[in-house]
Amino acid sequence: MQTPTMSTSMAPTPPAKLPAKQCCFCGTTTTTNNHLNRRGSLAIAASSAKKKNPWLDPFDDGPDDEFDYRGVFSGGKQEEDPRPPEDPSNPYGFLRFPQGYNPELDSLASKVRGDVRRACCVVSGGVYENVLFFPVVQMLRDRYPGVLVDVVASARGKQVYEMCKNVRYADVYDPDDEWPEPAEYTHQLGVFKNRYYDLIVSTKLAGIGHALFLFMSSARDKVGYVYPNVNSAGAGLFLTEMFRPPTTNLADGGYNMYQDMLEWIGRPAKGVPQHPIPPLRVSISKKLRAFVEDKYSRAGVEKGKFVVVHGIASDSVANMKSKGDDDCLLPLEHWAEIAKEIRFHFTSLLVLLLLFVTLGIMTRNTEEIYRDVKKLMVCLGSSEGSGLKPLFVIPHQKHREEVEEIVGKETNILFITTPGQLTCLINDSVGVVATNTAAVQLANARDKPCVALFSSKKKAKLFLPYVEEKKSCTVIASETGKLIDIDIEAVKKAVKEFEAAPGFALAQT
What is the tally of structural domains in the chain? Predict the structure, then answer.
């Protein structure tokens, strides 16, 4: 009987031996696999000390210094994409794309270069924190030309962005809510996914829960702050870049609370230098300005003849104070004493001025006459020489009776809760006397004279680091560390520097 034999095609073939490779330095011959393993192990050992985030992939060796990832695609800042042609037969102006196809405008070069066409900012906090976020939005616009910036903030924080022309959409979702409604949570995730963001930044201190929320947005880059303690465990695994503040309250950083994020956005790149941090600027619309002008006219004051008083003690959510300064509201009894120095009886000043001109004591133009009369009034110790009326801004209607009872029934009072209306009011005023509320930052953003009251010099330096550059801002700090012990006489002396715009014209003789 003939025994069966295995065919040549079915016989197992020995594994192919990898070609040997001779080392150019020592002359030894090694296989390719051994050479690659040795090279990979050396690279891991060399880069393991440089790893900043221990939650990332332990087998990730980091970027190769000898390899140019951007290549020929990098040549400075990104350029705005040309708009595709519109469909002339469509009355709604939709773009012309083949039916049944999903348009994709991003190129591979844009992906490699890291361009940002759509960005979203999740901002934690109230009015004060969102006002200080304006330089971050401006930095995004400067660093990535043509970017569309959206904002997600609380209901109070959203009101701020009517003063920011760089924001496309402002959605209401409170990131500080620890137990959000499931419907709101999933709806916001759907909004993130449907808008296809390239970059999403967050100012809420993230643990693994908030980091997962950002990760599920499907954005390409997820950037945010994390807790400076063990609560941040696992958050770095879902974030592209993370910042660790010194305390668990980000607002403790004051005006520069977003310094790390600003430096990361404005970081230098190939052909792009380090971007300087832009100053805080706000814009107001003509429609809102006209509405506020009608509102304060009904309160009994005229444009350019009143001083905004902001920062009375209140438990209202519309007091616009910072989370980083708990002692920033002053009782009405102190404001009543300050208001006496601002109060003005226009008739007495005008009669005295006309008397001087009639007697020939002053023969110069109106502005010089007004300045001299004011100096004379101050020298005589008169409290009626400023030519102004104090306008008390209250965050709730329940404070109206308190102001009339303590300050006086003839006091001018205006009920304002939105930062946009407050900015218009400050813009039409002569100046602002306020504690550490959003009114101080808005006055400096509009370059208006301001007297800022702080509980300590440390807080003043923290929230107004630029005060030395701005000559129009006067800072008065308490010596005891409590705002209630502030020197009222120093405040009275500072408010005398406000000058009202003369609303009359005299012929030059």
Answer: 2
